[in-house]
Amino acid sequence: MSDSFTDIVDAIQPGVKPQPGNLPGPFVRVFLVLCWLSVGLLPVVFAVGDIELAAGRTGTPGTLTVVSCEALGKGRYDCKGSFAPDGGGAAIPVAASPDSEAGDVTRAQLTPEGDRAVKAGTTGVVAALTLPFLGVGLLGFLPYVIMYFLGARRGRRAAVAAGVAITVIGAAGTLVGMVAAYS
């Protein structure tokens, strides 16, 4: 056997097994829970603007025509569009969603900054809910972890069942949102 192969095998061999009850200290536990909470809630907070935009509460309604899409490599695209406001006026050059194709024409909302347009209506709202659903799905098992950290024995089975349900709902919402974004 070569030395490099032996090094790889040694690296994946189990080391010292953690013993039951070996938990991080209380400050580390609080830090971990706060990090987990922030990772789950930040997508919800950051999506509020896009949800309001897609729902028509902010921005200017109109029609987006995708003019061009340039491949950036590795499956990434940069799309440019032309936004025609419903109230009339000159078309505005904007950034279009990278999941667009040249020639696509859709109902859209222009951001208040006037730099990009997003799909409007139900499809746009469902697409904007993709990240919040992902965040909710990530939070599914946090109650169980908190109960485990606190040493609570009662209710952990219910917390696991709720965690599974919340994670499945989050995954389903994320999937539906991605389908809406790419349709």
Notes on the protein architecture:
This protein is an alpha+beta fold and about 180 residues long. It is built from six helices and five strands; from the N terminus they run ααβββββαααα. It has helices at about 5-10, 25-55, 120-130, 130-140, 140-150, 155-180; strands spanning about 60-75, 75-85, 90-95, 105-110, 115-120. A five-stranded antiparallel beta sheet has the order 3-2-1-4-5. β1 and β2 form a beta hairpin. α2 packs antiparallel against α4, α2 packs antiparallel against α5 (about 140-150) and α3 (about 120-130) packs across α6. The longest helix has 30 residues, at about 25-55. It starts with a helix and ends with a helix.
Summarize the helices and strands and which ones pair or pack.
Layout: H1 3-12, H2 26-55, E1 60-73, E2 76-85, E3 92-96, E4 105-110, E5 117-119, H3 121-128, H4 130-138, H5 142-150, H6 156-181
Antiparallel strand pairs: 1-2, 1-4, 2-3, 4-5
